[in-house]
User: Which sequence fits this backbone?
């Protein structure tokens, strides 16, 4: 299945404080409301202007900082179909898989804001339709593919009642 | 096979020798949630009809990030943690007890344990020789209910320390220096293992400061061998029986070895807005400071408060610079009070608050105004961290922080330390 949408471009070191600012700590039990502020401290217009299906495209070490799972949850809740970045911080990466948000390590330098993208998760390809270029990404580790395919860790447990990570 | 500390601890749990890169499902000894991540974890267990704790005595729910509650939404979140504790027998750490990572090392984590906590600074407990790592709410929820998690065995970066700190230089300066050197992603997916004569000579409080910030280099955990100092720390808390010696094997294989001579270090700060944006204090002199914050899981321990108090004693804060001091736990608060440190802070013009995460997380108590500058002893200076994306946060040791509170700007703490 291919995902399709527009690129929203961010820089390096986008932290969980940019994604889910501490001043909205009281909204952590209200994800729909918290999602209205997603990435607010990196791009104020993002939450209101993005369309479901769009992509977050960033530089190095995306999601560094806190373990707050709310960060990938509200990115997904807002309708972002995947996050593409040069690299990710470890906890954010793992949380994203657990909540069913595809996170792809890919060279994002040639993608510009507003480019139309098509992502083929199975083929490991990002097609920049605006530029007519195809970028490839390393497939996720098999354990993570399994959890992501199940729809996240909760769904994995609902299905198997235990860890079932043999691949 | 010669093993690093991380490999040794995980191997003991897996019942086989593990290698970096291997993915294993392992038992966990301690699980922890706090008031920011806990409600979501509980909600996941409710959805799965798995509201239970595999090991209630070692499942700890901390109310520390918003303690006491500043808003009704958070009061309701706190209620959900209290209810979960009642229903499962898990331990509830109330608003008066302190920051989760400090409470975990004081009372819950032992050398050789695996700890998973829904807070990124869970790596702090690595200073006890425990494999401790931060995860999200769902991972920890599953760990609480089943007593298990999955892990990728990390490679290890060895930090080999020699020499000793010169006057005015502390563990905080070392860890900022190290993160500046390797970068905020320099240890991603890896464990940091601190060793060598410089590490062996360190007090536990210094080890906690170093392990605490492993995640600021992207690290999964920050480990120290469990030695005679670890034993003494546990014995002082009536936990001598929890001690196990834990050391890496000679000839263990490391992804990288970084040698640092502690005597070469200088007072160091991180400039806004990333932790790896470090420089020597001498390169930041004169930076205006509106607020100084001394506390947190990084530097809110008794030894930190002693250093700050020794600089502030008999002096007054700069009239344009406010000073907030937040002891990390109830035990620290009581000892600091008994030693007269809190009175020293108050006399110097500081606000001494109750225990908790306080101003660090931008939830309440010390939120910055537009354009304001805070010098803090915490571990993060990300944009927006202290509640305002228009503010600026510098990170420093308690000595540098105390000196800045007196001068109203960043100064060399060595000029303020009394002989």
Assistant:
């Amino acid at each position: 299945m291919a995902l399709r949408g527009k690129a929203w471009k961010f820089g390096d070191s986008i932290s969980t404080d940019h994604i889910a600012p501490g001043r909205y700590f009281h909204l952590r039990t209200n994800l729909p409301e918290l999602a209205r502020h997603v990435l607010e401290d990196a791009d104020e217009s993002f939450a209101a202007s993005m369309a479901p299906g769009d992509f977050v495209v960033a530089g190095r070490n995306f999601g560094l900082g806190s373990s707050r799972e709310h960060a990938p949850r509200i990115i997904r809740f807002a309708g972002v179909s995947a996050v593409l970045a040069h690299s990710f911080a470890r906890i954010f990466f793992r949380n994203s898989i657990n909540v069913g948000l595809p996170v792809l390590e890919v060279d994002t330098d040639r993608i510009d804001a507003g480019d139309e993208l098509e992502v083929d998760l199975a083929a490991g390809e990002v097609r920049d339709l605006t530029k007519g270029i195809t970028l490839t990404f390393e497939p996720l580790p098999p354990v993570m593919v399994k959890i992501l395919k199940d729809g996240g860790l909760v769904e994995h447990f609902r299905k198997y009642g235990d860890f079932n990570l043999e691949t | 096979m010669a093993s690093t500390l991380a490999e040794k601890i995980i191997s003991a749990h897996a019942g086989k020798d593990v290698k970096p890169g291997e993915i294993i499902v392992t038992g966990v000894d301690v699980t922890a949630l706090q008031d920011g991540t806990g409600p979501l974890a509980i909600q996941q267990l409710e959805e799965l009809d798995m509201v239970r704790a595999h090991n209630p005595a070692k499942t700890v729910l901390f109310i520390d990030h918003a303690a006491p509650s500043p808003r009704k939404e958070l009061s309701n979140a706190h209620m959900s943690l209290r209810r979960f504790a009642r229903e499962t027998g898990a331990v509830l750490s109330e608003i008066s007890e302190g920051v989760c990572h400090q409470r975990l090392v004081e009372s819950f984590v032992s050398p050789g344990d695996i700890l998973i906590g829904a807070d990124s600074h869970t790596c702090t407990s690595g200073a006890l020789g425990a494999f401790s790592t931060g995860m999200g709410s769902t991972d920890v929820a599953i760990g609480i209910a089943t007593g298990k998690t999955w892990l990728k065995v990390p490679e290890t970066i060895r930090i080999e320390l020699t020499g000793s700190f010169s006057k005015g230089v502390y563990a905080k300066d070392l860890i900022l220096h190290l993160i500046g050197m390797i970068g905020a992603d320099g240890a991603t997916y890896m464990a940091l293992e601190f060793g060598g004569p410089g590490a062996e000579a360190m007090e536990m409080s210094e080890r906690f400061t170093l392990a605490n910030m492993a995640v600021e280099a992207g690290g999964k955990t920050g480990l120290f061998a469990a030695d005679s100092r670890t034993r003494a720390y546990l014995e002082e808390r009536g936990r001598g029986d929890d001690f196990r010696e834990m050391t890496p094997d000679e000839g263990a294989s490391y992804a990288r070895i970084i040698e640092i001579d502690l005597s070469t270090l200088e007072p160091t700060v991180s400039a806004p807005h990333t932790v790896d944006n470090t420089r020597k204090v001498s390169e930041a002199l004169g930076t205006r400071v509106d607020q100084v914050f001394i506390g947190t899981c990084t530097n809110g321990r008794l030894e930190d408060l002693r250093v700050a108090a020794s600089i502030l004693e008999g002096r007054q804060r700069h009239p344009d610079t406010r000073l907030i001091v937040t002891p990390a736990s109830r035990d620290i608060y009581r000892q600091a009070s008994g030693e007269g440190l809190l009175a020293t802070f108050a006399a110097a013009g500081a606000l001494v608050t109750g225990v908790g995460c306080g101003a660090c997380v931008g939830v309440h108590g010390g939120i910055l105004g537009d354009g304001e500058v805070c010098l803090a002893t915490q571990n993060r200076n990300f944009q927006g961290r202290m509640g305002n994306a228009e503010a600026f946060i510098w990170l420093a040791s308690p000595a540098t922080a105390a000196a800045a509170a007196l001068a109203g700007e960043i100064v060399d703490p060595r000029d303020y330390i009394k002989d």
Observations:
- The mean pLDDT of chain B is 97.
- The longest helix of chain B spans residues 72-88.
